[in-house]
Amino acid sequence: MSASSQTFSALLPGDVSDDSSKRALLAEIDASCRVPVLFFVISGLLWLLAGTALALVASIKLHSPGFLASWEFLTFGRVRPAHLNTVIYGFASQTGIGVTLWLMCRLCRVPFVAPGLATVAAIFWNIGLTVGVVGILIGDSTSIEWLELPRYCTPILFFSYALVAVWAIITFRLRREQHLYVSQWYLLAAILWFPWLYATAQIMLLIEPVRGVVQAAVNWWFAHNVLGLWFTPIGLASIYYFIPKVIGRPIHSYYLSVLGFWSLALFYNWNGLHHLIGGPMPAWMITVSIVASVMMLIPVTTVAINHHMTMWGHFGKLKHSPTLRFVVVGALCYTATSLQGIANSLRSYSEVVHFTHHTIAHAHLGLYGFFAMVMFGSLYYIIPRITQREWPSLGLISLHFWACFLGLALYVVPLSLGGILQGLAMNDASVPFLKVVEGTLPWLKLRTFAGLLLGLGHVAFVGNLVWLLARVFGPYRKPVVAILMGAETAAVVGK
Amino acid sequence: MNVLAILMIGGVLAVPGVALVALRWASHRGELNLPERAALLPFDEEEPVGRATDQILNRQSAES
User: Fold this and answer.
1) Considering the domain boundaries, does residue A1 fall inside one?
2) Which of B6, B47, B56 is the best mutation test for A, with the most CBs of A within 10 A?
């Protein structure tokens, strides 16, 4: 053991060689994650509610422009980026970090090291984001898509993220399981990729801004990679862990999972420039991006085959497991949004759908259908274990799932079709532009209705969580429910 | 502009470059030679292969 490993090992409890110790360790790992993971997750869900409210305001404004038009901080140009940033950095990043922390501890077989470090990171992340979102609403947006948070809040976010990365490296160094599961590959990659992406984009766009079309190139390199190299690895890591765990069966092919990871690592970061098809960019840069986008067929296909074959013969378990329902829907959406993204990257297809609502549908199929659904499923698994309490209401779980599922379908399908019709009409010089805009109104109204359904699902989820937490921290604490864990573990926890 | 081009191309090459280095590291450690062992890593004595978990929606009612 190296000197650094010995230093870190001093932070851990003693050896865990016998079986009873291993079982005790599992319960200890879950219990040790409680404060930091809950902090990130609860913060993330509160930002989800805020982001949903902002999304609804923005969506209503698209078909009823007079809605809340008398307040400048609620104009579309401010509400829309505020929605995007609350959801990306508030909800998705924080729940993603929360799930990452738990998965890392579980797979490294170590209790949570230095929970104070992660909790401080969460506090600073929320302070930085609050400052940033308020900044957007008062008019300080940078106007760079996906990087609208004002420059004065980003050092706080970066400091906070650095603490999370340090924590992850320490935990990895302390791992008791020497071999890595594929989920760890994805998580470690995400943890190292995100600060590199974020720092590069901040430097090249805000601190020492590049000029002209290079700004657009850097912007879309960042925006696309945040999806593919930050959220996607965390989402896929969760799917690779939770599907086998819930159905009690190892993944169909570990080789395929490794191939999927490495091909994502090699191809994804070249994809972003396909957003600039038709723009004043060197043609070779766009072409390289299109080729890399088509190469994404390799990781997408391997992941799809692996997930489907792992589930084969176990689809009946979807009826009984909320985790499985959300995660499997998320996995299907990953395949769908990836194939849609490959199609979007082709010049002939992009000529139609570029600058239409089809792009919005695609983004939501990816970030919501895939990532958010997988996170919801993961939280249904993790939270009962770290709080040692069951979910209080099965009805709210079902309401959450069906509201989100129907809301997602009503959002993505009509906007995708409407976007294609919109694009075809825009490419027809005989159709007046006003006619094209009027033609989108039915789709936009459906979008608002879908957003209301999604909001209903979010309220049901947060309500159930608040109810559960009231049982954990409130005056009428309930005993540990045996269904969560083996009897021996329950006994260990009870000691 | 040359500096920018170097920065951008270097940046784009960095991810696959680091990925290749990590792939070599993984290969040397034997991470790619243990598929069956690695596939079992999410399981343990408490939640072994063959035991489904999280089957909570078949409960008659929530615990009170």
Assistant:
1) no
2) B56
Is residue A5 included in any domain, yes or no? no
Q: How many CB atoms lie within 10 A of CB A347?
A: 13
Residues in CB range of A316: below 8 A, 6 or more apart: none
Domain residue limits, chain B:
1-30
Does B60 contact chain A (CB < 8 Å)?
no
Q: Which residue in the set B11, B15, B64 is minimally distant from A265, CB to CB?
A: B15
B25–A contact, CB cutoff 8 A: no
CB contact under 8 A, B45 and A181: no
Question: Is A481–B63 a contact, with Cβ atoms under 8 angstroms apart?
Answer: yes
Burial of A180 (0-12, 13-18, 19+ CB in 10 A): buried
Considering the domain boundaries, does residue A2 fall inside one? no
Between chain A and chain B, the number of residue pairs with CB atoms below 8 A apart is 143
Q: Does A204 touch chain B (CB under 8 A)?
A: yes
Tell me which residue range forms the domain holding A299: 20-494
Interface touch B56/A390, C-beta < 8 Å: yes
- How far apart CA A151 and CA A155 sit, in angstroms, is 8
How many domains in chain A? 1
Is the ipTM here above 0.95? no
Pairwise CA distance, residues A294 & A346, whole Å: 9
**Using H for helix, E for strand and C for coil, what is the string for A155-207?**
HHHHHHHHHHHHHHHHHHHCCCCCCCCHHHHHHHHHHHHHHHHHHHHHHHHHH
- List all residues of chain A from 15 to 34 with a beta carbon under 8 Å from chain B: 19, 22-23, 26
- How far apart CA A405 and CA A392 sit, in angstroms, is 21
What is the model's pTM?
Answer: 0.90
Distance CA A283, CA A290 (A): 11
Q: Which residues of A touch B14 (CB under 8 A)?
A: 196
Report, in this order, helix, strand and coil percent for chain B, each rounded to 5: 55, 0, 45
Domain of residue A305, CATH code: 1.20.210.10
Contact at CB, A269 and B54, closer than 8 angstroms:
no
Residues within 8 A of A (CB atoms), B 27-46 only: 31-32, 34-46
Determine, yes or no, domain membership for A381. yes
Per-residue pLDDT in tens (0 to 9) along chain A, 495 residues: 444 444 444 444 444 445 555 557 788 999 999 999 999 999 999 999 999 999 999 999 999 999 999 999 999 999 999 999 999 999 999 999 999 999 999 999 999 999 999 999 999 999 999 999 999 999 999 999 999 999 999 999 999 999 999 999 999 999 998 888 999 999 999 998 898 889 889 988 988 888 888 899 999 999 999 999 999 999 999 999 999 999 999 999 999 999 999 899 889 988 999 999 988 889 999 999 999 999 999 999 999 999 999 999 999 999 999 999 999 999 999 999 999 999 999 999 999 999 999 999 999 999 999 999 999 999 999 999 999 999 999 999 999 999 999 999 999 999 999 999 999 999 999 999 999 999 999 999 999 999 999 999 999 999 999 999 998 887 655 555 444 544 334 333 333
Indicate the residue type of A486.
G
Both tokens of residue B61? 């009612």
